[in-house]
Amino acid sequence: MPLGQASLPWTSWSSCFGSSRRVVAAKCRTKKLGLWLEQHAPELSQETLQEVPRLVLVASSFDLDITTTAVFLTRKLLMEIQLIRVQAYRLKSGEVVVTTSKLFPPPDMDGMVLYPEAEEEQERKLERTREKNTVARLIAARALPDGAELRFSPGSEMTTIVRTEVLAWVKEAPERAKAAWRNHPGAPLIWAADGKAYSPTGLVKHIAARAGHEIRSIAGPRSWKDSSGRTLPAIADASGD
User: Fold this and answer.
1) Which of 28, 152, 214, 239 is most buried per CB count within 10 Å?
2) How far apart are CA 192 and CA 24, in angstroms?
3) Share of the chain above pLDDT 70, in %
4) Where are any strands of DSSP class E within 63-177?
């Protein structure tokens, strides 16, 4: 497809909305993008876009970071990943021979063991990525006004024993369960208990630590709910409708 045909119709977006509000603009862009995809990529649909992607990486070599990441994504997200090594040789005759070999997944995939610290680091990276996506969507859509009250209400993202003990500590002082939202990408929550700014996950970990529990990885945005009982990811999902 020529580059000119593949470019999105950015200049035509201004004609489809009269308001300057970001939410209206975002919805308009989504509609235009959907029409563009129908025209240039008819094989894509809501169903296919939700499928777990299949990745094939081709290189002359792969370091430990790549292989451990491949193992992690394959196990945790059930992604289909292949690592293909390509090597080139020049024969005495001057001809170039290229060979390929599949390094991953190996035949004994089930027997592979990640280093514990490597798996924990991948968990933390995935946690940060998810949180940034949720906060970014909330800010882009202005789904929550500055000062909106949120309540600490952890669910299955925290084990039952830890959740029970943390909530018992929180109930000792009502302000411990409250946070005010602000449209800030890095630290959108102001904790009522100390007036300091935190990320959703950072504040969950801080509260748990104050209650005597260290949490290494948790989906923090799911622990904060608005007055309607919606979690931050649920609010972000609704803002994209």
Assistant:
1) 152
2) 32
3) 69
4) 80-90, 96-104, 149-152
Q: Give the pLDDT band (50/70/90) at residue 216.
A: confident
Other Cβ atoms less than 10 A from the Cβ of 80: the count is 12
Dihedral of CA 166/171/176/178: which sign? positive
Residue 35: what residue type?
Answer: L
Tokens representing residue 39 in the block: 């025209």
User: For residue 7, what pLDDT is reported?
Assistant: 41
- Cis amide linkage into residue 42, ω under 30° from 0: no
Q: Residue 47: CA atoms inside 13 Å, Cβ hemisphere, count?
A: 2
Q: Which long-range contacts (CB under 8 A, 24 or more apart) does 126-131 make?
A: 126/76, 127/201, 127/217, 127/218, 127/219, 127/220, 128/201, 130/219, 130/221, 131/199, 131/200, 131/201, 131/219, 131/220, 131/221
pTM above 0.70, yes or no: no
User: Which residue carries 């292989």 as its tokens?
Assistant: 67
Residue 35 is given by DSSP the state: H
